[in-house]
Amino acid sequence: MAQTVGKYMCVALFVLVTVALGQVVAQSEGAAVWAPTWADTLKKDLLKGYDPSIRPSQHYNVTTVETGITITHVEINEIKSTLSVYGWMKFKWYDARLAWEPQLNGNVTQLFLNQSAIWQPTLDEKGPLVKVTSNGLLEYTNALQQQSKCTIQWQRWPFDTQQCRMLFSPWAEVDGMEIHVKMLKYEIAHGTMWTVMNMTLETHTAIDVHETPVHRGTHLVVELKRNSGIYRSTITAPACVLILMNLLSFWLPPNCGEKLILNAINVLITCMFLIHFNEYLSYYTTSTPTVVLFFGQSLYLSGFCLLMTVVLECVVKSNSKKPLHPALKKLITFELIAMIISTNKTDEKCLGDEMCETLQDEQEVEEALSSTRQRPTDTPQQDWMLFVTLLERIVFALYVIILSLMLALYF
């Protein structure tokens, strides 16, 4: 029995020794397969004693960070007054602590390190790997998806140019010009609504006593111009037509009913434009666009023209059988005024059209027109029409003056 137990113990001991020797051999083989490379050794040497919280320059020197920006899309939310920028940013800077001699390190000329292991101008540690070359140059490209508040200047809408400031957060706090960010280059992809005209980088430090802590740091100043080609067709062209309609109404004969219809349509269309502007524009703006002011003033002028047309037509119809005051009649007989308000063939045709409604005989119409041509001011109705025409010419001159002042003031 004792011999059997001893035999089993010897077998168990042999198995244990065999397993232990196998593990030792496996570890030695694995160590031979996964031997450190030149890059592994170089990385350990470079990061040994490296403090990522200290910038790569003496405290009395400036660390220069070069930045290249590619903008792929830019968007302004006019209701919320926010600017959104999408694209790519490329950073470059030198860190002498990460330089090495390639000849002494297996001719390794570049490495890729995690952002959390080295100093970087931003506080984002979840970005891509940083490329490090043997001369100590570090660079990496990061996605740009930034949104910030932008005060919208509404005065020149929709032919406006906006300038927005965007703080690159989270940028490392700049204190005493320790970090100088320089724009290396920028590329812009033209958008559909806005076109980026220019981009600049501005650095505000704690030394600027007039700057609040919110404005300190490095800012990207973006100048954008609205692509307003469509607005020239939807706003400028209708505005010109409305002005021509108002001007045309002054030159129609006083007894033509089309004047009332023309002015009423003008007022209606102008009101529709103002309602559209009210729905489109932001309710948070403190300034009214000049286009809206122009349409608002045009509505007043169109309303006045409509009111004047109604009043003058009532004057002509109510006083057509009463003689004009001698002083007013003498006024309209002056040669210069008579040339301005003289009736033309269109006036005679309109008068003939009205007569055709009451006179059945064509010969009587011709006789009435002949008498009108021979003595245009003999009848009270004709005198009143000439006087009303004089008033319309005066209002026309005032309208042109006011319109010119509006164009000079708003545009």
From TrEMBL:
Protein topology in the membrane: Multi-pass membrane protein
Superkingdom: Eukaryota
TM stretches of this protein: 235-253, 260-278, 298-316, 384-410
Molecular-function annotations in GO: extracellular ligand-gated monoatomic ion channel activity; transmembrane signaling receptor activity
Keyword terms of this UniProt record: Membrane, Receptor, Signal, Transmembrane, Transmembrane helix
GO terms under cellular component: membrane
SUPFAM superfamilies, per the entry: Neurotransmitter-gated ion-channel transmembrane pore, Nicotinic receptor ligand binding domain-like
Major localization class: membrane
Cellular localization per UniProt: Membrane
Signal peptide feature range: 1-22
Domain Neurotransmitter-gated ion-channel ligand-binding: 41-197
Protein name listed in UniProt: Nicotinic acetylcholine receptor subunit alpha/beta9(Beta)
Organism: Anopheles gambiae
Protein encoded by which gene: 1271417
